[in-house]
Amino acid sequence: MIGVVAKREALSLFRSPLAWVVLAAVQGLVGYQFLAQIDVFVQYLPRIRSMPQPPGVVQLVVIPTVGLTAFLMLFLIPLLTMQTLSGERRTGILRLWYSAPLSLTSLVLGKFLGVMALQSVIWALNALMPLTLLWGTALDLGTYAANLLGLYLLMAAGTAIGLFFSALTAQPAVAAMGSFATLLALWLIDWASQLETRANLLSELSLLAHFQRLTRGLVTTADVGYFVALMATALALTVWRLTGDRRAH
């Protein structure tokens, strides 16, 4: 049943103009950033070669490109998730799901996987761009893979948070604003940690801090576990919210 819900959600997204606008916007902006970083790399190549420990093309091209994609997803994930449950609550479809022989866990996971299907396309297109550099230079494949892992984990955690806010209201715009505010707060909390005495605690809650460590090639269980825990918590809260709503009906 999870696959049925996921397929329905993915088809619904890909049939909407929003999905194609998002794909075009992301690829346009990220492609421009990618080419601009290559131009900068080529321009400063003589100076880079004279350094005792010069940065590679991954550090100067791939990491900034992945960072831009991650930042864009903070704005786009709320748009992709706002209709998943709140739109169906408003139209009455959610009540039909409640009466179907389907567990709410399967419903939530299906919705989650359906949205991730579209984001997987974005992720794959971003993963393919740096591979074109293999025709002219060597890549640090370990750091490159860590960047892709960090980007996918961020997308998954953000999608789960978006689903939770979509489950809270019948107004998609409200759901989008709530999920965006939460994602932005988790992204910016690392900056606040520099001004607080409890810097370590705030840094551990920071989406940006864990993501940046992964983009540097430092893959640790703490950073991966942070995104997995964030995703699992948001999905569990979504199931809990829908369970209470089903009992009320």
Mean pLDDT score: 87
Number of domains: 1
Span between termini: 22 Å
Enumerate the spans where pLDDT stays under 50 for 5 or more consecutive residues: none
* Structural category: mainly alpha
Strand content is under 5%
Number of helices: 12
**Rg measurement, Å:** 20 Å
Helical fraction equals: over 70%
The shape, in one word, is elongated
What features would you highlight for this structure?
elongated; 0% strand; mainly alpha; 249 residues; 12 helices
Written account of the structure:
The mean pLDDT is 87. The protein has 12 helices and no strands. The two termini are 22 Å apart. 82% of the residues lie in helices and 0% in strands.
How would you sum up this structure in a few lines?
82% of the residues lie in helices and 0% in strands. With 249 residues, the protein is mainly α.
What topology emerges from the helices and strands here?
Layout: H1 2-14, H2 17-43, H3 45-49, H4 57-81, H5 86-91, H6 93-99, H7 104-131, H8 141-168, H9 172-193, H10 199-205, H11 207-215, H12 221-248
Helix pairs in contact: 1-7, 2-4, 2-7, 4-8, 4-9, 7-8, 7-12, 8-9, 8-11, 8-12, 9-10, 11-12
